[in-house]
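We close this part of the discussion by returning to an individual protein. Part of our work consisted of pairing the sequence of a single chain with a tokenised description of its backbone. The amino acid sequence and the backbone structure tokens for this protein are reproduced below.
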Amino acid sequence: MIDALPRREREVFETLCRLEAGATAEVRAALSDPLSDSAVRTMLSRLEAKGLVERVGGADGVRFRPAQAPQTVAASALRRVIDTFFAGSAASAASALLGLGQRLTPEEAAELEAMIDKAVEKKP
């Protein structure tokens, strides 16, 4: 459903996912190309009506958060990127990510190695 969102709604939704939760002003401040407060409120309300965002009351006022866990949204978005740009190959996507030049900590490398070992198809 996220793919079908208009560009600005998708940007507001992705920003909210990155923040994990936020008031209208926080979402607005985190946007790369800020909108007015009323435009952000309108988009958050539209996203809420679509079931993508929930409104949460708190001591400091109304806050919004993604209706699904950010990890679920991230997995779905990553699957779309892999399907679109890497012909469905997780290995090609991983190679591209590792090719970006960021250094891995020993812990990250060990975690990746364990995940690769688990994912490798065992042949009888």
Summary: The longest strand covers residues 53-58. The mean pLDDT is 88.
